[in-house]
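Batch manifest line 420
LIGAND: zinc ion
JOB: complex structure
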Amino acid sequence: MKYDLVLHGATVIDPSQEIHGRFDVAVAGDRIVAVAQRIEAGEAGRLIDLSGKVLTPGWVDIHAHVYAGVTTWGIKADAFCLATGVTTIVDAGSPGWANFLGFEEYIVAPSRTQVLTFVHISGIGLTYGPLGEMEDLRYGDPARTAFVVQNWPDICVGVKVRQGKHQVGDNGVRPLRLALEAAEAARVPVMVHIGAGVPLPDVLAEMREGDIATHCYQGVGDGIIGEDGGVIPQVWEARQRGVVFDIGHGGGSFDFEVARAALANGFAADVISTDIHAHSIHHSVYSLPETASKLLNLGVDLEDVVRQSTTSAAAAIGRGDELGTLRVGTVADLAAFEILDGEFEFHDVRRRLLVGARKIEPVLTVRAGEVYRPQELAEEVAETLRRAGQMKAITGGNFAEAIARGAIAPGRPGLGDKGG
Ligand SMILES: [Zn+2]
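JOB STATUS: finished
ARTIFACT:
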């Protein structure tokens, strides 16, 4: 057989090659070996008919928290990713230099999904959510952070810092400066969480071309929209300079009103990401295709939504040569979706309702040539949700209430709540 797998009959959208049309895609081993309008079925070991479906490069989620069991927000993401079209997931700073080796051994190595990470400038990473990880600057160690990033380049894509009052206390942009020092040494971007309590112009003024501002549609304060309802000039200036703007939905950072104001001003995020974690997975995020569906229903074109979830996401983490593309010779990471028509309800982090006419529904994921279907992963995904509920209960603000309703069951892993 010439090919191990042929994906037949889909509408292929590959923004990296400006492909949008009906194509067949052939895979041999873990590589894409042909993209053509017609590939003979007889040459394939396995043929999958995707007529009526959309086929894209595998989706790349550049902001998530997957250091399960070790960090406040970590979820077991492997099966969840493969059930939702995500072939590469990037942890946004759950590991710092001090707990990075555990991340490599317990999360990256056993995962079928490709797992990458930003290394937090705080050496402890996000192990203890109740206290801001950079309220004490002694946690910031640019030299050790840069060392880890440079010596594990297959896994590390950049440096993370969170620049809100809750994370930095009275330290202003000093944590960001430490992150930049590490990133300069390792020649990688910094991903900066923008949040209330540190003026956004001060943060953006420090950021370089290729650095990533995540949570760009947050509505908690010090965001991208000014008092006049327009995008503030410093944001336009930063974009001009090459700063990348990422969504990072999360539990508190996707506000439909901010997204609408930005889009009305002609400002769309460069990258769509979930910031999925134990406290957001049950609460309005749900998945990358669900997040992308919100953008689709807010007026972003399907092709742009795909670009922001694939090609642009891969470029933002310096992996555009290999990921977010269906170029022949690259890794066989693909995702197939059905674009459903109907009436669908979506929520933002303030539980505002958006009723949309289209929804991006994952039907199949190919990761390094292996085929996964959502229904085959259902049990593992249910376990992910149970464990996430347990972590949320034990690390949430309403701890006592969670005990009272039995959400936390010590010694019985998996018996979590329904998310609360
Ligand atoms: Zn995050």
